[in-house]
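Below is a concrete protein record.
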Amino acid sequence: MDIDQDILNRIKQINWFTNCGQALENDMRFSYTRVYNWKEAMRSYQDPNWEHATLEARNELTAFLHNKYRNEYAQWNKIAKEVRAFIEKEVIQEVENYREKNELDQAFIDCVKWDIANAILESAYSKCNKRPTFFLELLKVYEAGNFPCGWDGKWPQGNVIVY
């Protein structure tokens, strides 16, 4: 298993948060609810419901791989280490600068890291048929210049909250 360079290039080209508050201009398979300012977005990403939803999405991926693609799953830690290094080198400084400028908290950074890391991991397992791809859907939100910041509903039913 290797990380696909296409996904890394997509992430490098993101114009982080340039369309926050605007309608999402990207097709996503989930329905979404909009919030219109950082105060509402912060309330959403700090809500335990968002952490629960993203943790459940990650658990679906790891359970799927463990049950159906054990040999590939055995490389998870190696891939995850590469993913963390990429994020630290290519993503965090720009996101951190944005966080400081907009007086956001550390949880904001943690959310972005988690989402991007899991999108890369989902991509790395692209040869595993019918794998969950929740975070690749969230990546579309980031690519559109928006911020996926919450979950409205009880997982897995509901909507992504987007700023």
